[in-house]
Amino acid sequence: MYPDDPPDSSTPGGGLPAFWVGPRHLAGDDGRLYDVVADVLASLGWTSLTIVRGRRERDETPEDHQVLRSTVLHISPDALRWAQWGLADEPFHLGELPIAWQISARAEASSPIAQWSSYFTRDVPGEAVVDFLVALDASDQPAVPLAGAELVLDAVAAHGWFRDIDQPQVAATDPTFTSHISLGEVPPLIQDSDSRALSSEADEAGLTGWQAWAEPALGAPCLWAASFAASAPHDLVAAFAASLSSTAPVLRRVLPEATRERLLRTQAT
């Protein structure tokens, strides 16, 4: 489950019944987004470091308790890519949702800054984040684009998503018009090494990067959101998009309230 104190990836899912559910993009993260991703990173040989913020004394009264939060940093063996889990006291938000995972890469281990970063809130399906990270781990040049933007839209179109009528080259949505992916202006504070990310004026168009989100009903709060910096390689974003839009069912015990009635499900045996 989501860690407030340093996470324990052995936390069981409890006695809730398990279901095979779809579509994946509305299935949530089963309340295990940290565990699912961290287990895969460990299997890939990434090193994890835990930083705890705040302090809690044994004899202090409840009203004197300081906020205790942890940030867990996972670093690849070559130190060119890293993934950070953190739900801080003042979290960075996407679509009014706090960021859970921030994943970054750089061209050289000596570089002090990331070439690009990507961001995922809670309830992004863990399978999609995992497939993005597996593709990132397998990349020989994680900071170099190897394909064009069209690859991302091809990935979702192959699973039945529709290209936007007005912007078919930059946007697509699922058949229920609930989940979306679009190449558009990057939200504020998204880390990118492109100098234009810092130099653009208020009245100028900013950099464009891939954004994805699920909006269960028109005007309703987002279920989840993901954002990729302008320099994020399109082939890696395509790996995320292909997994997100996959028609293969996923195993879940915890279903999102906002999309529960939209899900097809059958009890797992």
How would you explain this protein's 3D organization?
This protein has 269 residues and is an alpha+beta fold. Helices cover 17% and strands 27% of the residues. The strands form two sheets. Strands 2, 3, 4, 5, 6, 7, 8, 9, 10, 11 and 12 form an eleven-stranded antiparallel sheet that branches. A hairpin with a 2-residue loop joins strand 5 (93-94) and strand 6 (97-105). Helix 2 (126-138) packs antiparallel against helix 5 and helix 3 packs parallel to helix 5 (234-244). The radius of gyration is 19 Å and the shape is globular. The model is unreliable at 1-12 (pLDDT under 50).
Q: What is the secondary structure topology, with strand pairs?
A:
Layout: E1 19-22, H1 33-43, E2 47-53, E3 69-75, E4 81-86, E5 93-94, E6 97-105, E7 116-121, H2 126-138, H3 150-157, E8 162-163, E9 171-173, E10 179-185, H4 196-199, E11 208-214, E12 224-228, H5 234-244, E13 250-252, E14 264-267
Antiparallel strand pairs: 1-13, 1-14, 2-3, 3-4, 4-6, 5-6, 6-7, 7-12, 8-9, 9-10, 10-11, 11-12
**Strand element count:** 14
Residue fraction in strands: 25-35%
Biggest sheet record: 11 strands, antiparallel
For the record, give the distance between the C-alpha atoms at the N and C termini, rounded to a whole number: 23 Å
Radius of gyration: 19 Å
Order of helices and strands: EHEEEEEEHHEEEHEEHEE
Helical proportion, percent range: 10-25%
Features:
11-stranded antiparallel sheet, alpha+beta, 269 residues, 3-stranded antiparallel sheet, disordered N terminus, 14 strands, globular, single chain
In short:
With 269 residues, the protein is of the alpha+beta class.
